[in-house]
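Need the bound structure for zinc ion, inputs here:
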Amino acid sequence: MRWDIAQLVENTDPNWIIDRLEEMVKSANGLAENYRGKIIGLDAPGLLALLESRDDFSLRYEGVMEYCNLKYSADSTDAVSKKLNEAAKKAGTRVGQALAFMEIELGSLLKDKPILVVDSRLSEYSHYLERIVCRIPHVMTEELEKLTMSKDQNGVSAWSQLQGDWLGTRTFKIIVDGVEKMMSYGEIISLYQSSNRVLRREANRVVYEGLGGDDQLWASAIRSICGDHLQMCEWRKYPTPMTQSLIDNDVEQEAIDALMQTMEDNVESYRRYLRLKAKLMGLDKLGNWDIVAPLSGDTKKRYTWEESRREVVNAYTGFDTEWGEWVNEMYGRHHIDGEVRNGKRSGAFCASWLAGKSAWVLQSFNGQMGDVYTQAHELGHAVHAYLGSRHQKPSNNEIGSCIAETASVFGELLLTDKLLEETETSGEKRAILANVLDEFGMSAYQVSARVFFEQSMYDAIKDGQFLDGDTVSSLWVASRDRIYGNAVEWLPEMKWEWTMKPHYYIPNYRFYNYPYIYAQLFVFALYRLYKEQGKAFVPNMRTILSAGSSRSPMKLAVEVGFNVTDEDFWSKGIKQFDELIDQLEATL
Ligand SMILES: [Zn+2]
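Answer from helper R.:
Posting the output first, comments after.
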């Protein structure tokens, strides 16, 4: 259950590692010396040589950087880990600074010679270059860019910092098991998942009553950040408040419009699930504090590491034998760290290892069903890395948020079907299904309300409305109700829910939200197609995952025969969601 990250480097002696990091910085400086000020004069072969040498550079030093990062994630208390992590971070920053000129000079070159984007000699990099071209019209003069950076430091960045610090220092009084406790925000939110319904309700009430008490502060922050964004859209010539995020995520407005329309047209599916969940919990109606609560009678089943391995490998093998072999190899070559221990980073992640054509996964495995799901999820990312590293250069492996979760969530659905097949009791079946349906509900439907809310704030500012706390809350409640209707009972304090969502305050992160919906509905739609077409669908999935970031999500979809600007495609995802609800209903 421990990984063997020594495979990443030729030598694990800390001095050797530090020397290697130094060599990396020197090599980056060498690249800079060769190219600084000269990119503007490059022809197609010259540009190809530059892009290839930068890719070679990143492959050459990927192992040593990853070794330092992973070692620190696995044990942040170890002195050597700390030292190497610091050294790697510093070296990474120096490389970033040394090579920062490239993106700027590439922009100037492509502005001058746009024909390079379609030059056949650069075909492997064409989409990478296209994406640089998309940004060109929105870059300001060097002086204005510098001014913007210093304005942001004391403007949007400071507001975001204040929101985070303020939230982090709030305390909440609550009675737990007859004892009065003062809890931080981080502590009290764990009570939302309590099996005690009264406690869940009270935790929600206490938190949002407390946060609403500071509405002046939250409203000032969100008003300034949204107002700043609208002004910057004018400066940068973005036609709509969403344009910047569309460019960052490599997606088109038409696709997002079709996606959001599908969500809104199908709110009844979610409401049906919420009503069914209420029934399963023996309630007339869910309270907002019940939406993601565990179903009573949830599975108590525990899995050993070997059992989990078997389930996950079988789930992937059932879809594609080679995927199953890769997943099995991740266990066999000790690329997964599942041991629970002190000093280890919490949560789970998968890091691609392009040079080794593999990946590394970290999680804390306690044997619960959720841990098996996490394993399947992260190993889906690993499969994505196995395919991406075999077919694409590093520059084409920068996968955007809309596509990044494709293999991982698909893997969760494969596991779901596998577990349902083997499960006999209706209690366990319910736990498995509710787990998947809750996740979809939160990532697709709940986040849709957040997209509506964000859009409504920009619209309100443009209409000349002043966003005080109550106005923001009324926009929040209106957006929320577009999704939930009357399927859920909300505590009145929940109108302050927008105050705590850090994403709304993060600088340059406008419309962070729709990629979550895209990712979920995209995978559910693909899974539906797999169910309809069977084995014939497998090559399509391989095409999508092998493409990395070499094509836009829209082009990629066209290649495998569907249209993401068409609601018919997205509706397939809703059908898959409906089908899982049917299965849950059948357990009654
Ligand atoms: Zn993921």
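Comments: The chain has a mean pLDDT of 95. The chain has 23 helices and seven strands.
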